[in-house]
Model the fold of this input.
Amino acid sequence: YWMSINGVMSNMGVSYYKSACSADSGLTASITFTDRLIFLDDVKYNNGRSGTWTLLAAINDILSVAKISTLPIFENMLSNVVIRRCIPKETSCREAIRMCAQAAMCVCYIDKNDRLHFFKPAYNENFHNLIRDTLHDEPDINIGEKFNAVTITRRDIYVEHAEDESFTVSVARGEELQQEKNINNPLVNDLEAFANWALTWVQKRTSFNLQYRGNPLLEVGDTAKIYDSFEVNGNAIVESHDITFNGGMQGSITARRL
Done:
């Protein structure tokens, strides 16, 4: 559906009814909608095997099992990225998609046209300016755990007597204590490329949680310039975005600083 805000039409996306409840004896109900991904939790994927294929082939097969005919979108030639086929049996289709996206060194979300959208997060010069006037309060700033190394581990369960394979990349210097992030994904094809990509992201330790006025034009993956209580601003990539409408609009954002 579409919403008009100050004369600007905004696509609010395709949503699926989940539940409705009333907090009192009145007729005012709170209705919950969700995107299609949540329904993939109940569908199991059992087509895993040894070998490799492209991200496009993997996602198309998973969506076929889930009986979803909507075509996915791939940016930056991601459809051609090679990953491994050894998805464990009885994996939910939603988890299988997450594993494929991670192995292809990208992220995915359901866009407003109800399509799976795969992309590589990156800074965008057309950023959203979240100045203090639009915020309900000062943003919560979180500094995550420090990592200077990543180890990726994989094992093909469809190969008899297969053993774990791993690769570690570290930027620890001299006598610096190595603080390692361990990731396990059997679908990763190029261990070295993945470890270097993952290390770049786990070292982005600063994240923001904020409540703001709400803007349905803001999407996951967009760049936002966020101001703190000292008027210091920083660019961050939106990781999650929730909008609540209760006579007025309110947004909740989690974003990671670039």
